[in-house]
Specification:
Layout lengths: L13 H5 L3 H14 L3 H10 L6 H17 L2 H14 L3 E3 L5 E3 L3 H9 L1 H12 L6 H17 L11 H14 L5 H6 L14 H28 L3 H7 L5 H17 L5 H4 L2 H14 L4
Helix pairs in contact: 2-7, 2-11, 4-5, 4-15
Length: 288
Amino acid sequence: MEEAAPRPPQPGGPLWEIAGEARALLMLPSALALQVAHPAVGAGVDEWSVFRTDPWGRGERSLRSLLTWVYGGEEAAAEGRRLRRMHARINGTDAHGRPYRALDPANYAWVHTTGFPVYRHGMRYLGRRPYTAQEERRLYEEWLDVGRVLGLREQDMPQTVEEFWPVYLRTLDEVIEPTPVARELTALDRTVPPPDRGPRLVRAVARACWPLLVRVFARLRRFLTVGLLPPEARRALGLEWSARDERRLRRLGRAVAYVVPLLPERLRYLPYARRARAAARTRLRPVD
């Protein structure tokens, strides 16, 4: 008997609310920086990823994959299998001379794990209020659903939020370090090419204005990447964060938390998420 495909998060939960929304885009760089702070993950990204030569394309593909895990329905499990096939060939030696495999359960689980503490921390600033204990528990349960979509087994992931925190903190203490890629993603002087995605007119304007915009973009990217990392992760990476930085982030967060929920859905959500949410409402609409 064929095993049933893992069930992705369902409409109405916290991931359907936030994963495809504008605020999630602000949190993604922090999750990526925390992922590559794992020596094995950082080495794999350093050797195998095209994030330096094709940053916008790499980001677009990663974002589409993430949205499929949450909003993809039957496509979610297929995307999880595709990712595992793609990562099966990724292996090598990290900066300490230790062999690594991308699909080693500890490495693969860490990549998945980072989203939960970053979402939880980020919404303390970008949401109108922090998650309650019950909402946090449900968010973690849905993050477990996503892990199953990605092919992680029960033994690869702490099964409750209470079990999660000691494992996470121990990993920060014993494994995580400021890897070269993590330092690169949190640096102010990283060279970023102009966007090469979107409508032709937008790309043309971006290219023309990029010499003026790139410095502002780089400063904002670093500010959000470092600021939306949980404090314990910042400490593990040796990143400085001042009281002035904290006040600025709180002011920005209050503005985002007020404005984004007021936006119409076509501006608030990315197209893939918006279509999935509309289809779910149609399915759930009562029949007269």
